[in-house]
Write a structure and sequence with these properties.
Blueprint lengths: L13 E6 L10 H17 L2 E8 L3 E8 L4 H21 L11 E4 L3 H12 L1 H4 L14 H4 L12 H4 L5 H12 L5 H13 L6 H11 L19
Antiparallel strand pairs: 1-3, 1-4, 2-3
Helix pairs in contact: 1-2
Amino acid sequence: MPRRPRVFLPSVPCHVTFRGNNRHDIVRCDGDRLRLLDELRRATNSHELDVHAYVIMNNHVHLLVTGQTVDSLPKAMQSLGRRYIAYFNARHGRTGTLWEGRYKSSLVASEEYLFNCHRYIEQNPVRAGMVDVPGSFIWSSSRHYAAVQADDLVTAHEAWLSIGETEGIRRSVWAGLVNAPLADAVVGVIRKATWAGLAIGEDRDCERLESSIGRQVTAGERGWRKGRPRGQ
């Protein structure tokens, strides 16, 4: 089966994930984590990609990003992979690929799922049993939003900035959201869409996004009933 073409759009948030080949670790020490963050910062700054949320687990990474151009995400990911894998292989005496195939990316179809994806990312270490609350995990964006430690990699999405009139109110509102576990059904929607490279959100929101951009980002035939060939 041919791979589904990925869709990149300026100003539309995207959930991105990549993991180690055969689920092997992509970081083995704090030095690796710091280098991965440095290379991510370099790549996203160079290619106008805003990072709203991230988490670095041992064998995979999740990002919530918005590109300013259609090439922002693919170019940033290409740069990150090239530079970090060269570093990792040299440091650990290995050769060959590090990522498990292509990184996965999914457009986020609504503000509701923008927040859901953000929470999903920062709650990853909690679901893995590594910490009790997201803010206790230092290798994610959670401490930035909790005002524990500023992180210049992170750019808050305008939707996050709209949840309160002041910084204090925003952080209080967000703490209530990010510390509340996501429903299993929501986690399932995010995982299924990300694995398939489909838009993330409720059906109505995904249909609306698909119709507005004229590209297939859902699993069915919605949006392709007007005589437009699939894949164009």
